[in-house]
Amino acid sequence: MRNRSGVSYFISLGFILLFAGLLFAQDVPDRALIVNGKSAGMVVQMGGHAYVDVETVAQFTNGSVTLEPNQIVLTFPAPGSSTAPSATGLAPLPPAPPPGLSRDFASQAIAALAEMREWRGAIGTILIYGQQVVGTWPQDYRDRVEADVAQVAIAASTAADANALQLLQNEYSNLSKWANDVVTTRESLNATNTVRPDTLQNDPALAKISECSRFLNSMLVSGVFADNQSCH
């Protein structure tokens, strides 16, 4: 009974020996244990054998120790599990998430989208009211938006930026083609599709451009790249 209480006392202090050794006649003084360049406690020499604290073993192998009334359970992680120790004795860190959209890129892309919406609205008035195209304003819009998109391309600095830039360029290309078709039709005095009030609602090309614009604006504000078929 006295021996068992003594063992329980040592267990409560957290100093548990891996193997049953001699409790007397320590051969040499205790020595420090160094694991991967870090101190891991002391090694006890007894009866010609070296003993290490169970909790120390568990700590450096990412294992666990369970103290039960009649036994000590030492559990190691399964091979290949995410908690297995790395070469340095520490659990590997999870991979870093890929970087999202850079702030400068998103800001400039949102400004370019706003310019595209203004261009789209100006061209839309031709379809609604049948206005004549006077001056160079359609080409002026095209030039400004093209310059905006070029600036956005310079600001792209991450993989997400590059992917979002491709969608923005697709939106510009689709909008440019649609605007050119409307202006060309009006300049040729073909009023078939230029004076109907419901022309905008029934234009599939314009519907696709509008949907992509809304998606891109939402995606850029979120800061996380996503894809949408309307932008292809």
Q: What report would you give on this structure?
A:
With 232 residues, the chain is mainly α. The chain folds into 2 domains: 2-75, no CATH class; 103-231. The protein has helices at 2-12, 54-60, 103-129, 137-155, 159-187, 204-222; strands at 31-35, 38-46, 49-52, 64-67, 72-75. A 3-stranded antiparallel β-sheet has the order 1-2-3. A hairpin with a 2-residue loop joins strand 2 and strand 3 (49-52). Helix 3 runs antiparallel to helix 4 and helix 3 (103-129) packs parallel to helix 5. The longest helix is centred in the last third of the chain and has 29 residues, at 159-187. The chain starts with a helix and ends in a 10-residue tail after the last helix.
Number of domains in the coordinates? Answer: 2
Low-confidence stretches: 6-27, 83-87
Main beta sheet strand tally, sense and closure:
3 strands, antiparallel
Q: What is the terminal separation in angstroms?
A: 81 Å
What is the strand arrangement across the widest sheet? 1-2-3
- Helix/strand class: mainly alpha
- Into which percentage range does the β-strand content fall? 5-15%
Q: How many beta-strand segments? A: 5
Helix content: 40-55%
Radius of gyration: 36 Å
